[in-house]
């Protein structure tokens, strides 16, 4: 399976993985900064239009924790995700655990590959089973991520 959502290519590399790739017209150092700086994350990591990110905590080091929370503008439909960084290689690779509500935990790897000033960012989520992977896909996560990455491109252009 390979689909494109808002300019982001979504593939299923294995029975337990979801990968999302997008190319940005920015160096890896700038994409990394937008991906790891709370003030910038709050501008683009919003999923579908209309959401806000009132919680954005990042302790960017191996063993450091992260926590994100989203809600509609009136505060309704709030939800959170959290995890721990297990690998931090600036401008190149970030690996963390991910816990979301009652879903099984996942391990997410984000790779930043720069060529000629452009960066391909690939996020691969590894889940515990094919059923867990399919359940995550069924939430519309790929659409929300695609729209977020589209906004990330806009944020990068403004920097």
Characterise the protein shown here.
- It is built from four helices and nine strands, in the order βββααββββββαα.
- It is of the alpha+beta class and 159 residues long.
- The chain has one domain: 2-Layer Sandwich (Alpha-D-Glucose-1,6-Bisphosphate, Chain A, domain 4), CATH 3.30.530.20.
- A nine-stranded antiparallel β-sheet has the order 1-2-3-9-8-7-6-5-4.
- The longest helix has 18 residues, at 141-158.
- The model has no long low-confidence stretch (mean pLDDT 93).
Short note summarizing the structure:
Pfam families: AHSA1 (PF08327). This protein has helices spanning 28-36, 38-44, 130-138, 141-158, and strands at 2-5, 8-11, 17-24, 52-58, 65-71, 79-89, 93-100, 106-115, 118-126.
SSE arrangement:
Elements: E1 2-5, E2 8-11, E3 17-24, H1 28-36, H2 38-44, E4 52-58, E5 65-71, E6 79-89, E7 93-100, E8 106-115, E9 118-126, H3 130-138, H4 141-158
Antiparallel strand pairs: 1-2, 2-3, 3-9, 4-5, 5-6, 6-7, 7-8, 8-9
Helix pairs in contact: 1-2, 2-4
